[in-house]
């Protein structure tokens, strides 16, 4: 099975703006896939639909064979989302934010604590576990959202511009972490408007512009054409 299959995906926002005009996309299990495109191309809209934060206008979406229209709970269980905006409660502690995620996915409390410790450690945030989220730097907040997204151990991790506003040192360590997670078998899809990020991380790439996929290729092939 494929991790993701999208067919004829369309999104028209209220007011009539067509953000997606028939997107087709296949991401194989185990892949590290980049959705690359300029601002306004439709990347966040695509991700929003897959994670059921945005309603689609038309088209089919399947996640590990589960249909977004009829098997929404299975779809949600398989996806971990790292959105672009910081959408956690800034007054909660790092540990609370990660462990509280367990409730949405039926992860038992003890297991949630174990996993929180594991991921916060791997992401260099364990020492900050009792700090309120609002005291963290931007890069730490981004990593906090990654730890939160992994708590239910999804098979597909989706990140929307994961290193936006993160400095180069930290960006490298986030890249290392994501590569490690991918090698452990988690399929990763990230959006970026930044080719170097896709180049370092990704095996396959889709280029989106004005709501359409204009190229779908391997990173190798793309680079040999530049
Ligand atoms: P990207 O993530 O590639 O920058 P988006 O998916 O965020 O692109 O946006 C695609 C287009 O849809 C943009 O032109 C954007 O202004 C528009 N758009 C996004 N969200 C909304 C909305 N809620 N209502 C109307 N238009 C929107
Ligand atoms: P509150 O806003 O009171 O902290 P919410 O119910 O909005 O609580 O959710 C807590 C956090 O978990 C929010 O940041 C929310 O975006 C996130 N969240 C909720 N449901 C999901 C989900 N299915 N996948 C990923 N994150 C989620």
Automatic annotation (TrEMBL):
Keywords: ATP-binding, Nucleotide-binding, Transport. Residues 4-226 form the ABC transporter domain. GO terms for molecular function: ATP binding; ATP hydrolysis activity. This is ABC transporter ATP-binding protein. The chain holds residues 2 to 227 of 310 of the full protein.
């Amino acid at each position: 099975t494929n991790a993701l299959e999208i067919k004829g995906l369309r999104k028209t926002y209220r007011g009539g703006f067509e953000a997606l005009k028939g997107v087709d996309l296949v991401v194989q299990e185990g892949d590290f896939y980049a959705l690359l495109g300029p601002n306004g191309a439709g990347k966040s809209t695509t991700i929003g639909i897959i994670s059921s934060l945005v309603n689609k206008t038309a088209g089919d979406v399947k996640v590990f064979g589960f249909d977004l229209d009829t098997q929404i709970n299975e779809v949600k269980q398989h996806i971990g989302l790292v959105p672009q905006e910081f959408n956690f409660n800034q007054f909660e502690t790092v540990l609370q934010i990660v462990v509280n995620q367990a409730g949405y996915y039926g992860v038992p409390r003890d297991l949630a604590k174990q996993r929180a410790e594991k991921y916060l450690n791997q992401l260099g945030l364990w020492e900050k576990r009792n700090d309120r989220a609002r005291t963290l730097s931007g890069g730490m907040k981004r990593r906090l959202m990654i730890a939160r997204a992994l708590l239910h151990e999804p098979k597909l991790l989706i990140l929307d511009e994961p290193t936006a506003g993160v400095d180069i040192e930290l960006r490298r360590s986030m890249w290392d972490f994501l590569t490690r997670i991918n090698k452990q078998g988690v399929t990763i899809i990230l959006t970026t408007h930044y080719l170097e990020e896709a180049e370092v991380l990704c095996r396959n790439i889709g280029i989106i512009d004005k709501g359409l996929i204009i190229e779908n290729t391997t990173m190798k092939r793309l680079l040999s054409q530049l």
